[in-house]
Specification:
Helix content: 25-40%
Number of domains: 1
Structural class: alpha+beta
Bound molecules: coenzyme A
Distance between the termini: 47 Å
CATH class: Alpha Beta
Number of helices: 4
Shape: globular
CATH superfamily: Gcn5-related N-acetyltransferase (GNAT)
């Protein structure tokens, strides 16, 4: 398996994976996520690609793009409550169904960690939806710990 940052020509294949992740979110939380894969959502990956603060890491096996991670460099200035914060946020993440449970996700996170360190970040972060128990099991298996929660009361 090869890990590298995406080039422009990869983006249609990245969108195939993004669409799968979006469908999972629509199924799990239909009141929040818009069904389908409208042009705005398809095009969003190009905005990400051209943003100097974001990188798209991809995994490729036998010429097929089998996983991706959108890595966003975040700098939050100091506030009256908090010190300045700098972290690498994993904004979008997915592995093609046929390639799951073969270490692709772990390899992407390992590479993201190494790159974050090189860039001088001391932390990787992400947020996820509570219904996605498989993703939580994965994230915990690769070392993420919950440090903050969103709570709601549906009315
Ligand atoms: C979550 C996801 C990225 C994991 O990718 P993956 O390549 O299958 O993960 P790995 O093979 O590297 O798994 C590493 C470890 O994580 C854990 N893990 C992975 N998937 C799991 C699952 N479905 N259930 C329980 N544990 C899981 C296991 O401990 C696994 O090690 P093992 O296979 O030796 O038991 C993949 O299932 C996926 O794309 N899911 C749909 C999209 C998604 O939920 N994205 C995240 C949105 S926030």
């Amino acid at each position: 398996m090869q890990l590298r940052f995406a080039v422009l020509e990869d983006l249609p294949a990245v969108n195939v994976l993004r669409r799968q992740v979006n469908e999972l979110h629509v199924t799990g939380r239909p009141e929040t996520f818009k069904a389908g894969f409208p042009p705005e959502l398809e095009h969003h990956v190009y905005t990400v690609f051209h943003d100097p603060d974001q990188k798209i890491l991809v995994a490729e096996e036998d010429g097929q793009l089998c996983g991706f991670a959108v890595l966003h460099q975040i700098r939050r200035p100091e506030t009256p409550f908090m010190y300045e914060r700098r972290f690498l946020d994993v904004d979008e993440f997915g592995v093609a169904p046929a390639f799951r449970r073969r270490g692709v996700g772990r390899a992407l996170i390992d590479r993201a960690k190494a790159w974050a360190k090189e860039q001088g970040f001391d932390r990787l972060e992400l947020n996820m939806w509570e219904f996605n128990r498989d993703a939580l099991a994965f994230y915990e298996a690769v070392g993420f710990q919950t440090y903050r929660r969103y709570l709601e009361i549906p009315l």
